[in-house]
Design goal:
77% helix, 0% strand, mainly alpha, extended, 12 helices
């Protein structure tokens, strides 16, 4: 017969020395690995900084004291012409509306594409399970390419204007929201879907009646958040000739002195708009996530 020890004898304390040593050894290894990663990170940052500083037209440290010269010049001129600001704010409202329209249409188109891609790329919900990797890589590709790169390509094909901006932002939005929508859909309860399938519902009916009611609050919340991001993106795309208030900002800055009051007016208008959108969307996102009625 073989004696098997299942633990210490009654009344005898267990030997914790080996357990303590193993724990301390694990802690020391984690600290060592963390230290190595920290040294590696600092070394990469330092080498990258040194290389970037060498390739600059001027030294970073030499130009650092002049960082605030341009903003000070802009604000000084705007303050001198502060009486023009109310009229300038009103002047650029149509351009701001165009920017908001670009962001809204792009968000809507991107969200619709994201809904379809997310359902087709979610395990347990996909209509063609073997094509899940294809749809996931498609979303990765759309998410990986910046809007400005897509816009620059579309300018050569479609010319300048708001249409290339809408397409560029919508494509990136489809990839970004598709990933988020898919993660929400993965947590959906499958029982309603199984019940619909048992009575003969097709795939579209199962998604529309069994999945979307569950995920709609979170999807709408992510959509509102993405709308805020797209307002900023549409303003930035104006710098490459895509229309909207960003294009007016580019022209005002190109003219230099004499139009800095217009630059401040555009920045102020953008800031107030983004703050308003942020507050309103944050309010409704909170209601949607908590399940309150609008």
């Amino acid at each position: 017969m073989v004696d098997v020890a299942f633990g210490p004898e009654p009344g005898q304390r267990p030997d914790l020395s080996n357990t303590r040593e193993a724990y301390l050894d694990m802690v020391r290894r984690k600290r060592m690995y963390g230290g190595i990663l920290l040294v590696l990170f600092v070394s990469l940052m330092a080498s990258g900084w040194w290389l970037a500083d060498r390739r600059n037209a001027g030294g970073f440290w030499d130009g650092l004291p002049q960082t605030l010269d341009f903003p000070a010049e802009v604000l000084s001129e705007a303050w001198t012409n502060r009486a023009n600001l109310p009229g300038l704010l009103w002047k650029y409202v149509p351009a701001l509306i165009e920017t908001l329209n670009i962001a809204a249409v792009a968000t809507l188109l991107g969200a619709l594409a994201a809904m379809a891609l997310s359902l087709l790329a979610t395990r347990g919900l996909a209509r063609w399970p073997r094509l899940i990797p294809v749809f996931r890589r498609s979303m990765d590709a759309l998410r990986a390419i910046p809007e400005i790169v897509i816009a620059l390509v579309l300018i050569y094909v479609l010319g300048g204007g708001p249409v290339p901006a809408v397409i560029a932002i919508a494509l990136h939005t489809g990839g970004a929201l598709g990933k988020l929508f898919s993660e929400v859909a993965e947590n959906a309860d499958l029982k309603p879907i199984e019940g619909l399938a048992s009575v003969g519902a097709n795939w579209s009916q199962r998604m529309w009646l069994g999945v979307i009611p569950q995920v709609a609050p979170n999807w709408l919340s992510y959509g509102l958040l993405r709308f805020e991001i797209n307002v900023r993106a549409s303003a930035i795309l104006g710098f490459v000739g895509e229309g909207g208030i960003g294009y007016d900002l580019k022209l005002a800055m190109q003219w230099g002195q004499g139009r800095y009051d217009e630059v401040v007016a555009i920045f102020l208008l953008l800031f107030l708009t983004i703050v308003l959108i942020d507050r309103v969307s944050d309010h409704y996102r909170h209601k949607l996530v908590k399940g309150a009625m609008l």
